[in-house]
Sequence to fold (141 residues):
Amino acid sequence: MIKITSDLALDEAELTFSFVRASGPGGQNVNKVSSAVELRFDVARSSSLPDALKERLKKLAGRRLSDEGVLLIDAHRFRTQGLNRKDALSRLIALLQAAAIEPKIRKATRPSRASREQRLQTKRKASLIKQTRRGNLSAAD
Fold:
């Protein structure tokens, strides 16, 4: 089990790792070694995640989530399979932790009397500044 938050864990059996050849610099090593990692996680069929978290994860994942609900994370930053695997896993955990945070629901409130008065005072001050500018421009012409 992979711990996401204090009350949420992910079963490792739900993750699929596949290793492919990475592109980019690295000389002949790139052509011989499959060091890049593709991490696949089926969000839609996951039994570890609550439905509300799945919905938030779908929004956060963006184009990394396929139409079938499979999250794909590519990791090819490092030259070794092990480091790329850890990188992909840490990126998945970070994404799940971000999705686990429930957004605050905004409660509609009315502005206080003091804040309304302060806003009007600021508007009066800005108006006065603009009036004085207008007077200066007329005198210059």
